[in-house]
Specification:
The structure holds 2 protein chains of 2 kinds. By secondary structure, chain A is α/β, with parallel strands linked by helices. Chain A is built from 8 helices and 19 strands. The model of chain A has no long low-confidence stretch (mean pLDDT about 90). Chain B is built from 7 helices and 10 strands. In chain B, helix 5 packs parallel to helix 6. Chain B is globular. The mean pLDDT of chain B is about 90. Classes of the chains: A alpha/beta, B alpha/beta. Chains A and B meet through helix 6 and helix 7 of A and helix 2, helix 3 and helix 5 of B.
Chain lengths: ~375, ~230
């Protein structure tokens, strides 16, 4: 293992300030922190090691035998060219291993962030999260680049295991650069009675973003996912999700809200009812605010077992004239009323947001809508 | 304050109001009575300037100024405010964000409690509101906007009896405020609200026409006895 790449190097104040934009807080305010910058794990710290371990993945592979069974446990290393590139080129692997021990109820969130500081850098990462039986954790994650960085490539693979009865609430905010190419692959397995509540906020301009996720739910597992997507001109996002309900009692709800002001958004969501007594819902709503770009929403329901109940709602349209008139009747100019409606449309449900992130996300939405990101 | 003369209005090419003449003096509270589909809400919408309502004849004057062509938001800024009967839900737009957009956060703080809406700041506008909450929110919304002419579209509909009193008192408080009375025009289908507000005059609309005007109490008594008809003079 290359010690230089895995040994900690304290974050500078400038780096902290940048990461703060996407939810970073001082390590003392979190249960644990993982920060990866360029090709180095800069922080891998747990404040309560008996309940939470955070290690660079390369180190975790050496420390814990079982980690090798988790790695590529939810997706094969040959699944596609990007994942093959991660498997082949990163020796040792670059990324974090987060392990929440059985029964741990973490009072403060765990935070994990990625950043690229070197222009035109190629970053290939592999993260593994293991939340043991009965554990409860809140995760805050994000990605960031310095304002001067325009181009680069980030390919990431994450594998998340929620053991029986585990609970995880997570919020992720991505703020890559307008000329960047990002491919992210996310695989999750929820065992019996596990619960996952995920919010992804994708607002900043980006040349190409491909986000693929696969989630498998066991008996009585519950998954709720909310994705907020904004695409200004020059941005192309492709979000491809698959949720598989594999055992009785599994329930999943997946909501995607998209706004295009000239960019392109492809949203392919697939809900698979593979067992009886399962429930799945897909909601895909889009606002198209200019003639440029496109929103293509394709919700797909795949009922494979008797007794599965799957449904979806999908809509793409312009701002409702009645809502606009309602706000203007209070004295708002049309542009201000439009902004308020779009901001509201993109705002994640507040119950999902940690208190200290709410105002920051609201400010990001305003900034994204006004072209300030 | 408000002068309407010979007003005819169409919605999608269909006539909804014909030849309306109406005058509201500063500080007066008037009530509009009439059966369903008589044009009451259309009259309020035309005064407010909602986009679907096209004035084809006549004029509306606010404080002497003709406002026929004035855009909706400009009318609001000139002092017209409206409490909607069925306002649209605005997902994600919180009460506090709305107040911030109107720069009225202080008023939200000071006025919400009186309407039993003190804990509403993080609620989304009209999303999941009960019938009574919608009406009370629409009144609070007017307080945030602080208009001179207030239009109420059926403020008591969908409100339980206990809250009808609160809504009536709030309307009275808005219009009859001691520092400077506002002018008000209230649509009431059932007339229940008249037990709780002190109206000066009432008008009956039928088939898009104003068929009678008079003292509020007398005209409502007539409506209770004879329906929405013009009293014999």
């Amino acid at each position: 293992m290359n010690e230089a790449l895995t040994s900690p190097l304290p974050l500078s104040n400038a780096e902290r300030a940048l990461l703060h934009e996407v939810g970073f807080a001082d390590e003392s305010l979190r249960t644990g922190t993982a920060v990866l910058i360029d090709d180095r794990m800069r922080v891998a710290q747990s404040n309560i090691p008996d309940q939470l371990e955070i290690l660079p993945l390369a180190q975790a592979l050496e420390t814990h035998d079982f980690v090798q069974d988790l790695m590529f446990g939810l997706v094969g290393p040959e699944a596609n060219a990007d994942i093959r590139a991660i498997a082949d080129t990163m020796q040792p692997p670059l990324g974090h291993f987060i392990w929440v021990k059985a029964g741990a109820k973490l009072r403060l969130p765990v935070q994990c962030f990625s950043m690229i500081e070197t222009p035109q850098a190629r970053q290939f990462t592999h993260d593994i999260t293991l939340i043991e039986a009965g554990a409860e954790v809140e995760m805050i994650g994000g990605a960031m680049v310095p304002p001067a960085l325009h181009r680069g490539r980030h390919i990431t693979l994450s594998e998340t295991y929620l053991r029986a009865g585990a609970r995880c609430t997570s919020v992720g905010i991505e703020h890559w650069a307008p000329g960047m190419e990002v491919h992210s692959y996310s695989f999750a397995q929820l065992e019996t009675g596990a619960q996952s509540d995920t919010t992804a906020i994708l607002l900043a301009p980006i040349r190409e973003h491909v986000a693929q996720s696969r989630t498998e739910l066991g008996a009585d597992a519950i998954s709720s996912t909310q994705t907020v997507v904004f695409a200004p001109e020059g941005t192309h996002r492709r979000i491809d999700s698959e949720t598989r309900l594999t055992a009785p009692g599994a329930r999943a709800k997946e909501i995607t809200r998209m706004v295009s002001t000239g960019g392109e958004i492809d949203n392919l969501a697939r809900m698979i009812g593979a067992a009886t007594q399962t429930e799945g819902f897909l909601g895909c709503d889009g606002l198209k605010l200019t003639d440029q770009g496109a929103i293509r929403a394709v919700p797909a329901l795949d009922a494979q077992a008797e007794g599965t109940a799957l449904s979806h709602e999908a809509s793409v349209g312009r701002i409702d004239g009645e809502k606009l008139a309602y706000l203007m009747a209070s004295g708002m100019e049309e542009e201000a009323a439009r902004n308020l409606i779009v901001q509201g449309f993109l705002a994640p449900a507040e119950t999902r947001m940690p208190e200290d992130l709410r105002d920051r996300v609201a400010a990001m939405i305003v900034s994204a809508k006004s072209g300030g990101m | 304050m408000l002068e309407i003369s010979g007003l005819s209005v169409e919605v999608a090419g269909k006539s909804v109001l014909e030849g309306i003449d109406l005058s509201l003096g500063q500080g007066e509270l008037h009530v509009l009575l009439g059966p369903n589909g008589s044009g009451k809400s259309s009259l309020l919408a035309a005064i407010m300037g909602l986009p679907a309502y096209r004035i084809v004849a006549g004029e509306i004057r606010l404080c002497g100024e003709k406002i026929n062509e004035m855009p909706l938001s400009e009318r609001a800024r000139r002092g017209i405010g409206m409490a909607f009967q069925r306002p649209p839900g605005l997902d994600g737009v919180t009460v506090s964000a709305f107040a911030a957009a109107l720069q009225a956060q202080d008023r939200l703080q000071s006025e919400a409690a009186a309407l039993d809406l003190a804990d509403f700041s993080r609620r989304e506008l009209n999303v999941g509101f009960s019938g009574g909450e919608i009406k009370r929110w629409e009144i609070l919304k007017l307080m945030l906007q602080d208009p001179q002419l207030v239009l109420f579209d059926e403020p008591e509909s969908g409100v339980d009896l206990e809250h009808v009193i609160a809504v009536g008192q709030a309307i009275d408080r808005i219009v009859r405020r001691p520092e400077a009375a506002r002018t008000g025009l209230v649509i009431t289908h059932t007339g229940t609200i008249l037990h709780h507000v002190r109206a000066d005059r009432a008008h009956i609309l039928r088939g898009g026409r104003l068929i009678a005007s008079g003292a509020a109490e007398a005209l409502f008594t007539h409506v209770q006895a004879h329906g929405y008809t013009a009293p014999d003079v």
